[in-house]
Structures are given as structure tokens and as C-alpha cells.
């Protein structure tokens, strides 16, 4: 009996460590990416990472206890990252202050929180909007949009010719991407579970051995409370406020996709709960409120958690919650976070790109869940063609137009997904003549 208790204890501890590492790996790169885009100092990046750890850990615990109640880790949202990237690039090209853009983003996340609170009681009415075609289109467009950002970050695009030290940095980043891709695709057991962590450590070591590590931060204290409104007070912009509404649709789609995939991963271990989506949305609103107050990228349930559970078998709530609590505790230790900020930017971009590779497959698989009729193929074609085409437009194309037009029309992801939702709702499927069935391709 003692041996069984000890075995159970080790199993709980190992499970908690795995969840903590999973949360850590997905929360480290994005603050570094945002720091590079918005020209933040190393101290500011370390502070952003501290706040991200706090909100990601707290949101994970809240969702596990009172939200959807699934072992789904929370982390920075890819859709919010795309908004940060687009607005930051727009501000740079138009010569606007990046600090003001961050204030507007804080205000946008606050508006998103209020909208999520408002719709949390009626989310079941929106479920029918997120058809497999809409969900698949969202995943594909998000992958393509952020993939371009990550490639540019890996190669240092916009900083001159790829020569000298930058060429070596780009080559190492490509190697990290290949390593993570190979391990996550063909690795077994432990190697596959920790592919991203292995990639980060390997790339970091190579950079350090070549004398290209990150800078040191000034604060190496062992305890510090995260600073609220580190970017300054939120600024409410009408264009951003209007753009938040289609953005919330994609946040709802992301939450629904995460919970549905986890239901499939754990099988019949939990009973069907019709209020799960509503509670998850309500907690998501509170999380966005915290994201605004503590100046971070919006935090959402990570859809990849289902894959993590499938590989590791860690579906118990105890280790999951302990992992989230460990993440919160780490956020109060600047000395430990200072070490993590030394992660080279190209490595962070490379592991993020590798992490998005499975999303393309998930998007295609979601679309293929229903027959590819002429109607669905046409909607998919319009969605991808329009969304991807907008991504190639110059960022100053809509300069001088109302800000709401700039925020929405300049975001191919938003335009594409809203178009998919509208066409799915307005264009109804008709039975094939003489057969009474959908005509599949």
C-alpha cells in the first residue's frame, strides 16, 4: 500500500510538472515576440512575461475550477497576437506612437471583456454559427497570417541583408524549427511531449555558445508583485471598439473548439454539460479584464491541450491545477523570469512557427468533417482568397480612412472569418435535383 501511495504521489508530481512546462513553453515566446515588435526594453519584456505568467496561470485555475472544468491550459491568444502585429506594423508605417497603440489595445481587451460578459448567458445561440467550415477557415487563416510574422522574425526581415551574425541566427532558427517539427511528428513518448521545450533549450544553447545570447535585466529580486497598467491607462478608440465584435466571435470559436476537442480526447470520462460553454465564456471575460488591467496579450484556452492530453494521458484535474498554481507562483520571482528573457528572439519565433504547423492540419480536418459540396467549396474559396489577399496589401492601403475601417479591413483574418460566417448563414444548402441529397465533390 505504501508503494502504491508513493507511486501515486510521483505520478501526481510528474503530471503537475508536465502541465507547468506546457504552460511555460506556450507563454514564453509571445512576450518576446511582442517586445521585438513594439521595441520594448529587456526590463519591459521581463515585466510583460511576468504578467503573462500570472494571468495564464490564474485563468487556467479559474477555468478548471469554475469555467469549462476541463484540463485545458490557458495562454496568449493567437488571434490577439495577430491584432497586436497588425496595429503595431500600422503604427510604425504611419509614424504613430507605439505606446499609444498599446493603450488602445488595452482598451480593446477591456471592451472584449464586457462583450464576453454580456453574451456569456446566451452563448448556446452562437454555437450554430461556428460550423466546421468556419472553424477550419479560422484555423487556416490564423496559421497563414502568423506564419508570415514568425518567418520574418526568424530571419530578421526588415533589418537589412541576411549576412554575418544575422545569417547565423537565421540558420540556427531554421534548425530549431526543423528539430521541433521532427520531434513533434516522428518522436515518441517523452521526446514528442517535450518537443517545444527541447527546441527552446537546444536553440538557446547554440546561441549562447556562439556568444549571441540575450541581454541581462536590471531587476534580479526574488519577489515582486506584477505591475497593473504597465503600458499606461487604457485608451478607448471607436474603431477598435467596433473591431472587437467580430474578434469576440473568433474568441468564442476558439473556446468552443478547445472544449470540443478535449471532450473527444478524454472520451466519456466526464458527463455532457450544456452550460460548459457559457461558464467558459464568462471566465474568459474575466480573464480579458485581467489581461487589460495587467497589460498582456489576451489569454484564451489553448486548443492544443487536447493533443497534450492524448500524448501524455494527463487528464486528471489535480496535477493540472497544481501546474497552473506553480505558474502563478513563478510570476512573483523576477530573478527566474530574468533568465527566461534571455531566450533569443529567433528561437522564440521558430518554436512558435513549429507549434502552428498542426493547426493547418486541424483546419483541413475540420473542413473535411462535412462533404465538400459546390456551395462549401465556393465559400471556402471566397474566404481564403479574400483573407489571404488582404494580408498581402500594403499596411498603408487604408490610411486616411476611419480607424474602424483600418482595423477591420486591414485584418485578413477578421474579414475572412466574418465572410465565412455570413455566407454560411445566408446561403443555405439545397438538395441536388432528383436526389434529395447534397452534391459532394
Q: Brief description of this entry?
A:
The protein is mostly helical. The chain has 18 helices and two strands. It has a two-stranded antiparallel ribbon.
Outline the structure in words.
The protein is mainly α. Helices cover 69% and strands 1% of the residues. Strands 1-2 form a two-stranded antiparallel sheet. The longest helix has 29 residues, at 238-266. The termini are far apart. 49% of the residues are buried.
Keywords:
globular; two-stranded antiparallel sheet; 441 residues; mainly alpha; disordered C terminus; 2 strands; 1% strand
Secondary structure: elements and pairs:
Elements: H1 2-27, H2 29-37, H3 42-65, E1 74-76, H4 78-93, H5 98-119, H6 132-155, H7 164-186, H8 189-193, H9 195-209, H10 238-266, H11 276-293, E2 299-301, H12 305-312, H13 317-330, H14 334-340, H15 345-367, H16 374-391, H17 403-409, H18 412-426
Antiparallel strand pairs: 1-2
Work out the radius of gyration: 22 Å
Strand order, sheet with most strands: 1-2
Q: What is the residue-mean pLDDT, rounded to a whole number?
A: 81
**Class by alpha and beta content:** mainly alpha
| Low-confidence spans | 1-8, 435-441
Strand runs, count:
2
Number of helices: 18
What proportion strand?
under 5%
What's the end-to-end separation, in Å? 60 Å
Topology as a string of helices (H) and strands (E)? HHHEHHHHHHHHEHHHHHHH
Largest sheet: 2 strands, antiparallel
Which shape, going by the Cα principal axes?
globular
Q: Helicity level, as a percent range? A: 55-70%
